[in-house]
Structures are given as C-alpha cells and as structure tokens.
Design goal:
By secondary structure, the chain is an alpha+beta fold. The chain has two domains: 70 residues; 98 residues, Ribosomal protein S6/Translation elongation factor EF1B (Alpha-Beta Plaits). It has five helices and four strands, in the order H-H-H-E-H-E-H-E-E. Strand 3 and strand 4 form a beta hairpin.
Length: 227
C-alpha cells in the first residue's frame, strides 16, 4: 500500500507567511502606539510649557507692579514728611501747639474727616463748640454705631454721613455764634433743620445736622489662579 507524503514545503511556506503577517501586525501596532504616545506626550509637554510661560509672565507682571508700588510708597513717604513738617499748618496754626487751630497737617486732615465712626468723640466736639459760645447743652442725640460701621472698609472708600441732633439753650447772639462756628468748622457740618424757641429772653435751639467720616482704605492682597 502506497503512503501519502505530506507537502511539507507548502506548509512551511504558509507558516512563514503567517509568521510574517503576525510580525507585520505587531510592528504596525507598536508603531501606532508609539505615534499615539508621541502625540499625547507632545501635547502634554506643549500644554505644560504654555502653562509655565503664563505663570512666568504673570510673575513678571506682578514683580513689575510690586516695584511700581514700592516706588510709589517712597514718593508717598516723602510727600507725607513734607506735608507734616511745614512751619505753619494749612489753617494758619502752629504744628507744635495745642490750641484750637494748632497741630500738624495730618492731625488737621483727620480732624476734618476722621477715618473711624466715633460718635462719642463727635459729641465731645459738639459740646466744646457749644460751651465756647456760652451755651448750655440740653441734649446731644445720635447713634453710637461704631461696631457696625467698622465693617465699612473697602478698597475705594467714600465719605459716610453721621447724623446727630443738638439742643442748646442761651441768648440769641450765642445761638447765632454757634451757627457761625458750624460754618467755619474744619469738620464739615451740614445743618438740615434748626428750630428756635424763645421764652423770656432765653432761646432754645434744636439743630438737626450731619457730619462725615471716611473709612480707612483696605489693602487687598489677592491671589490669582493661572490656568
């Protein structure tokens, strides 16, 4: 009986082709992976480089602004020293004196427009103005709102009104003198209403008015997120 001899040459050729195809597929897959990995890596590196450039640019701008602020600070210090070291203050008083018109210019400015809501201090000032005219204080009415007003600080503060009502008693000339003192006061006082009653030569005046204070400017240190 004749034996059939397998075609080993054909089988070997087919095996080689299959092996070659497998190698090609693997090589193509590796190449595709390397291409995709390179693209992703390149994009990540490019994004990181762009982010670092934005961070560096922001830091550079911050440093430039800081240098400008320091220069402005130095100029402000020089201006302030010149402002308070004058031989005569802005209202003609002695900077080193203790009279009504004395005190350095910084004190004069704070007296004209205080930086804090302080109604007791205002009441003391009103009492002094009235008593220097020989008037008797009947009442000083207002709101001691210092705690709530302490939260009014901002980066761009504006003057805030302080309402009050003053009632005094004395001669008509004394009442008139108080009105003139209010007009000449370094601290602005806006009289909104005045009621005057006379009885046997004694005049009682009730004055409804307001003055102002301006909160301190708040220094804001902000953080910026660079994206």
């Amino acid at each position: 009986m004749a034996m059939k001899i397998p075609n080993t040459a054909g089988m070997t050729k087919r095996a080689l082709i299959d092996k070659a195809n497998t190698t090609t597929v693997i090589a193509a897959a590796v190449a595709a992976f390397l291409v995709v990995f390179s693209l992703v890596s390149s994009h990540a590196l490019l994004s990181k480089a762009m982010y670092q450039n934005r961070v560096i640019s922001t830091k550079k701008n911050t440093l430039e602004q800081l240098n400008k602020n320091l220069a402005a600070r130095d100029d402000l210090v020089k201006s302030y020293e010149a402002f308070v070291s004058t031989s005569q203050n802005i209202i003609g008083g002695n900077p080193a004196g203790s009279g009504d018109r004395d005190g350095d210019n910084a004190k004069i400015i704070l007296d004209a427009l205080p930086s804090k809501y302080d109604f007791p201090a205002l009441a003391s000032s009103l009492e002094k103005l009235a008593t220097t005219q020989g008037l008797q204080i009947e009442s000083i009415v207002g709101t001691d709102d210092e705690v709530a007003q302490a939260e009014q600080q901002s980066a761009a503060p504006t003057p805030i009104a302080m309402d009050f009502q003053l009632s005094v008693r004395g001669a008509y000339q004394q009442i008139q003198g108080l009105s003139e003192v209010f007009e000449k006061s370094i601290r602005p006082i806006q009289v909104q209403k005045m009621t005057v009653n006379s009885n046997d030569g004694t005049v009682t005046a009730t004055i409804t008015a307001q003055t102002f204070y301006q909160p301190e400017k708040k220094l804001e240190l902000r953080k910026k997120v660079v994206k």
